[in-house]
Amino acid sequence: MTYAEFFAEVKGKFVGADVSGIEEHLAYQFNITGEASGIFYVEVKEGELYVEPYEYFDRDAIFTCSAETLMKIASGKLDPIMAVTLQQLKVDGNIEKALKFKELVERNQGRKRKNK
């Protein structure tokens, strides 16, 4: 899988997540290692979610993992905190804001269950 294919799949998983109740600004950079390596960011700003294929310099946290690990997290098959415990996900930056990524994943999973 190429980075472009991977990014399109990740963006498809997150676009549409309900972030309307998140009042604070959140910005995460993802450094993907191994196959499909590259950098992208996820930002919650003014009730909107953005997923863009760029480096984000004013980020709250950086997540480093493989494409496979991130897809497992995004699909709800792997808890982000468990991924850190298993050393499959590395987190640098504001840990309090990084923990809110789990909330984004859970909101996204809730949206998918409602649409089924």
* Assembly category: single chain
Percent helix range? 40-55%
- The residue ranges in which pLDDT falls below 50 over 5 or more consecutive positions are none
The Cα radius of gyration reads: 13 Å
- Note the overall shape: globular
Determine the structural class based on helices, strands and strand pairing: alpha+beta
List the helices and strands and how they pair.
Layout (H helix, E strand, L loop, with lengths): L2 H12 L11 E8 L4 E8 L2 E5 L8 E6 H8 L5 H6 L3 E5 L1 H21 L1
Parallel strand pairs: 1-4
Antiparallel strand pairs: 1-2, 2-3, 4-5
Descriptive notes:
The chain is α+β, with helices and mostly antiparallel strands and 116 residues long. 41% of the residues lie in helices and 28% in strands. The protein is built from four helices and five strands. It has a five-stranded mixed beta sheet. The mean pLDDT is 89.
Outline of this structure?
The chain is α+β, with helices and mostly antiparallel strands and 116 residues long.
List keywords for this structure.
116 residues; alpha+beta; five-stranded mixed β-sheet; 41% helix; globular
